[in-house]
Specification:
Structural class: mainly beta
Order of helices and strands: EEEHEEHEEEEEHEEHEEEHEEE
CATH class of the largest domain: Alpha Beta
Radius of gyration: 18 Å
Number of strands: 18
Number of domains: 2
Helix content: 10-25%
Mean pLDDT: 95
Number of helices: 5
CATH architecture of the largest domain: Alpha-Beta Complex
CATH superfamily of the largest domain: Fumarylacetoacetase-like, C-terminal domain
Distance between the termini: 40 Å
């Protein structure tokens, strides 16, 4: 099953993908849908309305607009650790984002006038379905609603101003996610999917989700020891090597460049970067 959040006239709505069209639900986004059904997507079929939107007319919003939290992993691929000059850590590196950082899968992304170091980071996004607190890695799959493609667009100059790099990760409308949330059964829990990012058609990142240091299961278990994960929460699982900051010399995004972010079986984001006016 595939779920998305659609832009409608003056509002958004969670919808179920029927390949040729989407059918709407009474919920504003996929996060609120998950809260409404308490993570049991089998109940969603009973809530689908008769209202439909043809695929060619769809405008997609961020899949989850209202997560209670967005938690991200840094340095979760060994080759990315090497290219960024970091040492390995004994525990996952975590940081947070806020819902205002999210944007749609095909939206333009503005390059803020205060930065000249905008970088790409394709990532697997995990949407939490059922509340998770102190769950084991073995239990954690029961708490996954599905997966999205994400790009943790980073303002590297702001990120490197201090040892805490949150400020380079939370610029408004800078993190595209989508296009649909794909349920785990369609992609074997994303255990070994190809993950790729290209800039203006040139492949910059190419890896597999099986190369992640901390798996989805271990990540959910670890975070649930710290804080309760709620339906609709979003986890970003880190990026492989090939980011702009890892090039020699570093390369960053400029006006009118297009970034494609792809994960096998999940989907693709297409985002044009535009200079602030």
């Amino acid at each position: 099953m595939r779920f998305a959040t659609l832009n409608l006239q003056g509002r958004t709505a969670a919808a179920l993908n029927f390949e040729t069209h989407y059918r709407l639900t009474p919920f504003d986004d996929v996060a609120s849908l998950l809260r409404g059904v308490e993570g049991d997507l089998s109940r969603a079929a009973d809530l689908v309305l008769e209202d439909t939107v043809p695929l060619e007319e769809v405008s997609l919003a961020p899949t989850v607009n209202t997560p209670s939290k967005i938690i991200c992993l840094g340095l979760n691929y060994a080759d990315h650790i090497e290219e960024m000059g970091h040492g390995g850590e004994a525990y996952p590196t975590l940081f947070a984002k806020f819902p205002a950082a999210l944007t749609g899968p095909y939206d333009d992304i503005e390059i803020p006038s205060v930065t000249n170091a905008v970088d790409w980071e394709v990532e697997l996004g995990v949407v939490i379905g059922k509340r998770a607190r102190n769950v084991s890695a073995k239990q954690s799959h029961n708490h996954v609603a599905g997966f999205v493609v994400a790009n943790d667009v980073s303002m590297r100059d702001f990120q490197r101003r201090t040892s805490q790099f949150l400020q380079g990760k939370i610029f408004e409308r800078s993190t595209p996610i989508g296009p649909d949330m794909v349920t785990p059964d369609e992609v074997d829990y994303a255990l070994d999917l190809r993950i790729v990012c290209s800039v203006d058609g040139k492949v910059m990142q190419s890896s597999r989700t099986s190369n992640m240091i901390t798996s989805v299961a271990d990540t959910i278990s670890y975070i649930s020891q710290i804080i309760t994960l709620e339906p609709g929460d979003l986890l970003l699982m880190g990026t492989p090597s090939g980011v702009g900051a890892g090039q020699t010399p570093p390369v960053f995004l400029g006006n009118d460049q297009i970034v494609h972010s792809y994960i096998e079986g999940v989907g693709e984001l297409i985002n044009r970067f535009v200079s602030a006016k």
